[in-house]
Structure formats: C-alpha cells, structure tokens
Design goal:
The protein has about 260 residues and is an alpha/beta fold. It has one domain (about 25-240): 3-Layer(aba) Sandwich (Rossmann fold). The chain has eleven helices and six strands. Strands 2-1-3-4-5-6 form a six-stranded parallel β-sheet. Strand 3 (about 100-105), helix 4 and strand 4 (about 125-130) form a beta-alpha-beta unit. Helix 3 packs across helix 4, helix 5 crosses helix 6 and helix 5 crosses helix 7 (about 155-165).
C-alpha cells in the first residue's frame, strides 16, 4: 500500500475542505426577451472561475444574453452528473428561451452529449466545445497515478471519464464550434512521460471525433481557460452570432509537441 506524503496529504485536505463553487444563475432571467448561454464547467471549476463567469454574466446582460453556469458534477459519477444537469435545465426553465447556447468545458462534453441523446432540446442553437489532446488524458493520469487522491477530491466522475471514450454530439440541430487548448497544465507537464505513453498527440480538428462548423486554437492551458474566459468570449459570441469564429481566430494547429522538452 502506498503511503501519501505528509505535504501532499495536507494539501489535499485543504483542497477537499474548500467549499465547492456554486452555480451562477441570473438574478432576473428574461426568457421572453433574451437568449441563454449555459457554461458547463468541469473539474477546474473553483470560486475564482465562478467569479469570472459572474463577470461574463454582467457583461453579456447588455447583449441580451442570460448566463448560467451550473455546479452539476456529482461525486457519484457521470450518470448522476447528467441527472443533476437535467434537473438544472428543467428547474431554471431553459426550455422557455428562444435560443440556448452552450460552452462545454471538457467534462461538460462528456456529460452533455449523452444527455442530449435522451432529452429533447429543440432550442439548442450552438455548442462550443473546449477540447485538448493533452488535458483529455488528465483523467487517465489521475486514475493511474493519483487514484486515491482523485477519489477523495472528486469521487467517481474522473474515473468514468478515464474509461469512457469521447461521446460525440448526436443531435443534428445545433451548430458546433471547437476551441482547442495548445498549452499543458502543470499536471500534464509533471506527468508528460505518462501522457505520451498513451499514444501520439494530435491537434488536428478532424481527430477529435466531433462534427464541427468551425475550429480554432487558443494559446491557453485548461486552467487558464477558466481564469481568462473573458479572453475567448469574443470568439464564443462570434460563433453564437454567425456560426463561425472571428477572422482573427488562429486556425493553424501546433507543429511542436508541447509535452516534449
């Protein structure tokens, strides 16, 4: 049995005892006059990210868009998380909006896409996915190298993601955009050798197993995408309006492997 180093145990305890970031919900939603943007955070969701999403909420009120960010990830696994997300969509009357747009962080895609196979959401107009050939290996790394720590912090959903291939969106209605992270997080840098042992990395848009109407690259890590979400907001808004990212969006895939020294 592996012993947990003292400092790691203390750090984990501090993280575990922190209050989870709650949902971001409009104070005065107006489905009859506005559209909705639902941000689906994942394992990087924190109080700091919640504050960023609240700032986005204030900003988009002027664009007649109500912003929601549900805290839906459940320790029991992805199945329970989907049930929580289904309840959120129902309880907050997202069906009353003429259009709903979604920005799905990585765990959000694993939760949303299978859910849309079982519920009708005819007002879903656009989905923008956050993808990363590096960060999508983090659940497997957590399962293989940090299993006990991960279970203490998150429960089963990380393990579910580690063992479940990406479930592509089956619904034909919404327009789909893909934003691909090109920088690794600290976890991926630390476990770069393990990540690369799982197979070669590909940043090609067509290698993410998801149909798309436009695809672009962002020079951010997964952690940075949470803290700097306002930086990608112009691309998200452009896609909501036009089904395309801006002309200035980077559509050239990295040629160097970010995990190699």
């Amino acid at each position: 049995m592996h012993r947990l180093p003292c400092r790691a145990a203390i750090a984990l305890l501090a993280i575990t005892l922190q209050a989870c970031a709650g949902s971001v919900i409009p104070r005065a939603p107006e489905p009859a006059r506005r559209e909705a943007l639902v941000i689906l955070p994942g394992f990087g969701y924190s109080r700091g990210a919640r504050n960023v999403f609240r700032a986005v909420q204030t900003q988009l009120a002027a664009d007649a868009i109500d912003v929601y960010a549900p805290a839906y990830v459940e320790r029991g696994g992805l199945g329970e998380s989907r049930d929580k997300l289904r309840e959120f969509l129902s309880d907050h009357h997202l069906a009353a909006y003429s259009k709903v747009h979604v920005f799905a962080f990585i765990a959000g895609a694993w939760t949303l896409n299978p859910l849309l196979d079982s519920i009708a959401m005819p007002n879903l107009a656009t989905v923008v996915y956050d993808r990363s050939p590096m960060q999508e290996r983090a659940p497997r790394i957590a399962d293989d190298k940090l299993h006990f720590l991960t279970w203490l912090r998150y429960g089963r959903p990380v393990f579910d993601m580690a063992r479940m291939p990406y479930p592509p969106l089956g619904a034909a209605g919404p327009r789909v955009g893909v934003l691909i992270e090109t920088k690794p997080t600290g976890l991926l840098r630390k476990y770069a050798k393990t990540a690369l042992s799982y197979g070669p990395l590909s940043f090609a848009c067509n290698d993410f197993g998801q149909r798309f109407d436009d695809c672009a690259y962002v020079a951010m890590s997964h952690d940075e995408l949470y803290t700097r979400f306002e930086d990608v907001l112009p691309e998200v808004l452009a896609f909501i309006r036009d089904g395309r990212f801006t002309a200035n969006a980077n559509r050239v895939a990295p040629t160097a492997n970010p995990l190699k020294p």
